[in-house]
Design goal:
Radius of gyration: 28 Å
Number of helices: 11
Strand content: 35-45%
Strand order of the largest sheet: 18-17-20-15-14-13-2-16-19
Structural class: mainly beta
Mean pLDDT: 95
Shape: globular
Distance between the termini: 48 Å
Number of strands: 57
Helix content: 10-25%
Length: about 900
């Protein structure tokens, strides 16, 4: 093996091993799942977010719903803490996407942290705050049924803010030492909110940890009839602390005679954990075991689901972990880890759904080998043979898009005489999470092939560097330094920058001739001086000194925020040298500054290029349950869809464009298709006999929601297969510089990475500053409008959070009412992304007009004074218009 390579070719191989208890002398560690021990209804509470939703579309509703986002903590409406994330603007899209509760940080109506509340003394400051509380409650009460999803959080970390010792405190005395003023303020504020809205729910005390003094707070609250409706605190510590803190608090409740109250640990995790499936699954297991709600901590930018969302509609590995978690149902079962409640070891969570006849397990946190043991498998549910599907959810960086989980194995396993099955896992990666889905076997379904084959990782710090400017950076985030970001191998390499002659060379060894996927994990800090000039840092790739090409590396909101740039290379069996260089004699020189973490190399074989498989029995089901008795299914079973029943699939697309969706069924009825909530104008699928119906659809890059709904009789739905395709429906592309600009809007050649080198800027600042396209639709109906844009506006921040602004455009079609579209940051105005929205067009000519103007506050009369709401639309490069579907 070449130096610096990490072999992962056998990563997490599933073997049809014997029953538990027959391993040899050197037994691997075991994660034991006892299906006979019910630990309570599945809760799903770990899918929460602090400041994770900016507004409608950032992130997309698909990401919110597909993640099973349950709770969001966010700022008071019109609060100046950060751009976006205004409670009453994100409330409707969140609730409409399946969300449960929005916790309003009422203190975030003030600027700064600690909060800068005005007043000559403590009583004056509290009086000002209570006036703002009156306004907030009045605004919430205008929201109709949505207000039932609001929980008020009157104070946030009061021991370090309003009732701490700092300059902005009530009286510079911590309530932890003398609680009288905080307790009185809590009582008066609680009663004020309840007087204004008797049905209001109030959460607190919202301390930074579970202090012992909270026991006294509970006693006071009970004595004065001001007990919170939800108990909240933060756990910026460890998963183990979640378990012990919840147990401690529950003991206090019993001693005092309150509750049990719902709990929301509304900040959890650190930079080292977030985005890393193998780390976050350990928090998830502790939170689910404790049956509480919890929100991922907000260390970076808002609107990206705490480093789960990429662009507007893509997910990274962390998003796919939460998606797998959201797919759990039924009740949790006992999971015994090899090192119980010890972080940075193998931990997991598992469920059993008797109605679905499925068990699901999520686990991770350890490299190497381990046995996953399912015990007490009920033969009445599963039979004597089970179908086991094993998937890997890899780490793809904070801003790195991820495809659906990798299928490592899918096969039938005989249940041992003791009612157990042992699944040996080998070559696990501690940064990945893993999922096992267990269902009845023995019905003849052909096992699916792995969706991944040979692959290896090569660390940049082990590669050979020649030239000037080299730096080996790290260690980055570690268990002892959780404030830093996770990095593969803990180190990365710098040196590829403006003026450099550096070359980073990876020596690789591949097993056979073929095409290989090459993924370069890299980062450039968008506000760093050398990066600001051009945006994405360009470097030059060669294989064995040949076939030069230019790569543009990912931008991030800070250093060591990882994404990946992907390409393919043709390799023959044996050794090769892959180089990344800062200059190329044929192509030019690097502009910017980049750090490199690693490269991943994977054989693009027939398993990788085959259509993606989405089994119906693993989908989100409504009104129905899987049927494992019908012969001829591809997997362990089918899903019967009577009229009104539905199966929803969360389908990945690498980019915005056409795909062919093959609907495999066993006949019996017909069903309609919907895409991202849009009923498709295509013939119903199904029929009397087994068959496949193919539908061509336009998928948005990232996550797409495809729903199959029964329409007549009962269709036996087997699966979906999805593959990229071209040709129909046809896309018409319109360059922005060919449109009509009015007012201050203008064509510019300042952005070199715009297509054709031109784009339109300065749209907005008033409706007269507009860009208009005249487009042609071949037929009437719903179309995908794909906008290639850039946006790098950023507001001044008060502390560690970068504050990028999601610009908006108001789109009018044929002179009709405007529709507001939000565009997340692209980190630089010379960095262009695609955003697709559905629109209705008439056959023939249509006029599309983009304008923008600054959004007022909730009252409609005042405006944000900290430049947190832009009056401008993004820079627009081009648009594409495509029919949404066809047959």
């Amino acid at each position: 093996m070449a130096a610096g390579a990490t072999a992962v070719t056998a990563l997490a191989t599933l073997l049809a091993g014997p029953a538990a208890g027959t391993a040899g002398a050197a037994e691997p560690e075991r994660l034991v799942i006892d299906l006979a021990t019910d630990t309570g209804a599945f809760h799903g509470g770990a899918s929460g977010s602090l400041y994770g939703v900016y507004g409608d579309g950032v992130p997309s509703r698909n990401l919110i719903e597909g993640m099973g986002l349950r709770t969001v903590s966010t700022k008071a409406q019109d609060g100046p803490q950060h751009p976006g994330a205004d409670a009453l603007e994100m409330l409707p899209p969140f609730v409409d996407s399946g969300g449960k509760d929005v916790y309003i940080y009422m203190t975030d109506i003030y600027r700064g942290f600690p909060y800068q509340w005005p007043g000559a003394d403590g009583p004056a400051r509290l009086a000002d705050f209570q006036e703002k509380i009156r306004k907030q409650v009045a605004q919430v009460r205008t929201m109709g049924a949505y207000k039932d999803h609001v929980v008020y959080v009157p104070f946030n970390e009061p021991e370090g803010n309003m009732f701490g010792t700092g300059a902005w405190s009530y009286d510079k005395v911590s309530w932890l030492d003398d609680p009288q003023h905080f307790f009185t303020a809590w009582k008066d504020t609680y009663r004020l909110i309840k007087d204004l809205d008797p049905e209001a729910r109030i959460a607190g005390p919202n301390t930074s940890i579970l202090y012992d003094q909270i026991k006294g707070f509970l006693r006071y609250a009970k004595a004065n009839d001001v007990v919170p409706d939800v108990m909240t605190w933060h756990e910026l510590s460890s998963p183990a602390k979640v378990r012990t803190s919840v147990a401690t608090y529950r003991r206090w409740e019993k001693e005092i005679g309150v509750g049990p109250l719902p709990i929301n640990v509304n900040e959890y995790g650190h930079n080292y954990h977030l985005s890393v499936p193998g780390q976050v699954v350990q928090w998830v297991s502790a939170i689910e075991e404790s049956k509480i709600d919890a929100d991922l901590a907000y260390w970076n930018i808002d609107g990206n689901l705490n480093d789960s969302a990429v662009e507007a509609n893509k997910g990274n590995g962390q998003w796919w972990l939460f998606h797998a978690y959201a797919q759990m149902s039924g009740h949790t079962v006992e999971v015994t880890a090899p090192h119980p409640n010890q972080q940075y070891t193998l931990q997991g969570v598992a469920t059993l759904d008797e109605d679905k006849k499925q068990s699901r397990a999520l686990f991770g946190g350890q490299s190497g080998a381990a046995d996953v043991v399912f015990r007490n498998i009920d033969p009445a549910l599963f039979g004597t043979t089970v179908r086991a599907t094993v998937q890997e959810i890899p780490w793809t960086g904070q801003v790195g898009d991820s495809a659906q989980p990798l299928r490592l194995s899918d096969r039938e396993v005989t249940v041992g005489a003791d009612g157990s099955v042992t699944l040996p896992m080998t070559g696990m990666n501690e940064m990945s999470a893993y999922q096992v889905i267990l269902s009845p076997g023995g019905n003849g379904g052909e096992p699916a092939a792995p969706s991944v084959g040979w692959r290896r990782t090569y660390e940049a710090e082990d590669a050979t560097y020649t030239g000037k400017g080299y730096s080996r950076n790290g260690p980055e985030g570690t268990p002892s330094d959780v404030g830093k970001f996770a990095t593969s191998g803990a180190y990365n390499v710098g040196g590829l920058r403006t003026g450099s002659d550096g070359v980073l060379a990876f020596d690789v060894d591949v097993p056979r001739d073929g095409t290989y996927d090459l993924s370069v994990f890299a980062n450039s800090y968008n506000l760093y001086d050398l990066v600001k000039e051009q945006g994405p840092t360009n470097v030059f790739l060669r294989v064995d000194g040949k076939d030069p090409r230019e790569l543009r590396l990912p931008l991030g909101y800070k250093w060591v925020v990882w994404g990946h740039t992907d390409t393919t290379v043709e390799l023959t069996a044996g050794t090769h040298r892959i180089t990344l260089a800062a200059r190329d004699p044929e192509l030019g020189v690097t502009k910017g500054d980049a750090i490199i973490d690693k490269i991943d190399l994977a054989l693009r074989d027939e398993n990788v290029t085959a259509p993606a498989i989405y089994e119906a029995e693993y989908a989100s089901l409504s009104g129905t349950r899987p049927d494992y008795s019908r012969p001829g299914a591809s997997g362990p079973g089918t899903v019967p869809l009577a009229k009104g029943d539905s199966a929803t699939f969360w389908v990945y697309a690498p980019g915005d464009g056409e795909a062919t969706v093959s609907v495999d069924h066993l006949g019996g009825g017909r069903a309609g298709l919907s895409l991202n909530g849009e009923r498709l104008a295509v013939p119903e699928v199904g029929g009397a006999r087994k068959g496949t119906d193919r539908v061509r659809v336009f998928l948005s890059g990232g996550i797409n929601k495809i729903t199959v709904t029964g329409a007549a009789r009962e269709l036996a739905l087997d699966r979906l297969r999805v593959a990229p395709s071209t040709g129909s429906p046809r896309t018409r592309v319109y360059q922005a510089e060919d449109g009509t600009v009015t007012g201050a809007a203008k064509v510019t050649d300042a952005y070199t990475f715009a297509s054709n080198g031109k784009a339109v800027t300065d749209i907005g600042g008033g409706r007269g500053n507009a860009l208009t396209f005249d487009v042609v639709a071949e037929r009437p109906g719903r179309h995908a409008l794909t906008i290639r844009y850039s946006n790098a506006e950023q507001a001044p921040a008060t502390h560690y959070n970068p504050d990028p602004i999601a610009r908006h455009a108001d789109l009018s079609i044929n002179g009709g009412a405007t529709r507001r579209i939000l565009f997340p940051t692209t980190f630089h105005f010379n960095n262009f992304w695609d955003l697709t929205v559905p629109v209705t067009l008439k056959k023939g000519a249509n006029r599309l007009t983009f304008t923008a103007e600054e959004l007022p506050d909730f009252d409609g009369d005042t405006y944000n004074q900290y430049d947190q709401r832009s009056p401008y639309a993004p820079v627009i490069d081009r648009i594409g218009v495509t029919p949404l579907a066809g047959r």
